[in-house]
Design a protein that fits this description.
- By secondary structure, this protein is of the alpha+beta class.
- The chain has one domain.
- Helix content is 34%, strand content 23%.
- The chain has helices at residues 3-8, 24-35, 53-72, 99-115, 161-171; strands at residues 38-47, 79-82, 88-93, 122-130, 136-142, 147-151, 153-154, 158-159.
- A 6-stranded antiparallel beta sheet has the order 2-3-1-4-5-6.
């Protein structure tokens, strides 16, 4: 970034580091010990679909790869859903104690889209957790920000902001957090959460 960019307030976009997703298993251990939240085995990647055969081919290849992978270890088939805003969610499910395999699947989806030129279409990756009181929690990786944030939905499209801040404090430096709280977007109705 040059002097003129600094003077005019222009900034370079944060480059995502998809390998940051591999920090989730360690963060999950800390989250369980500190707040009692355990992985559900469900995770998803949200992206904006693109018209055209090449994108459809990449999406199908990723889905086929993950279905083949989950078939070997008894996992559930990968689902593709669309939300009310037109975004596509690719949902991968594993046993709750297979967080490493889930993260590997989610990383593969993100990497495949990036490697095929569709990185700008990626929005976020979500991994779901629950506690003994059945409270829901998602740890969300914002692709364009290269950072995580917690999302704790309540009924009636409300969220538990205190729990979200508690989770950030419990996990601490195990994950790279989004510092701008206004970017902790709610993902109402996210599949798997």
């Amino acid at each position: 970034m040059g002097f003129l960019d600094t003077l005019l307030g222009r900034t370079k976009p944060v480059q995502p580091k998809l390998d940051d997703l591999f920090a989730l298993p360690s963060a999950a251990v800390t989250l369980d010990a500190g707040a009692g939240f355990k992985p559900t085995g469900s995770g998803s990647v949200c992206f904006r679909p693109v018209e055209g055969r090449s994108f459809a081919d990449v999406q199908k290849d990723v889905q086929d790869l993950l279905n083949a992978s989950s078939g070997k270890d008894g996992g559930l088939p990968v689902e593709v859903t669309k939300d009310d805003y037109g975004f596509t969610w690719l949902v991968s499910s594993h046993m709750s104690d297979e967080l490493e395999a889930l993260v590997t699947d989610l990383h593969a989806v993100n990497s495949s889209l990036v490697d095929n030129g569709f990185g700008p279409q990626l929005l976020c990756t979500l991994v779901a957790f629950r506690d003994d009181s059945e409270r829901r929690l998602g740890l969300i990786y914002l692709y364009k920000r290269g950072a995580f944030y917690p999302f704790a939905p309540l009924s009636g499209e409300r969220r538990d902001n205190a729990l979200e801040l508690q989770v950030k404090g419990v996990i601490g430096d195990d994950l790279k957090w989004e510092q701008d709280l206004s970017r902790w977007f709610p993902v109402w109705g996210a599949p798997g959460l």
